[in-house]
Amino acid sequence: MKILFNSIHLFLFSLYVDFYKYRFDRAVKKRLKNGKDISTKKLTQMSDKCYYLFNSFIEKEKRLRLKM
Known about the structure:
single chain; 0% strand; elongated
């Protein structure tokens, strides 16, 4: 039962990571389309959070595989 719960949690977390990455990509494309600089503080923070979320997802996936 716990493995099922962890699997569902991992799936929902992956959706969140994908959604956040989509928001970041959309923000970068919008700035490039408008000819603006992409090295802003907000985009850097979004990029850092994307990287952190992705690494967290990978670690959670590894832990779940070890439990199986």
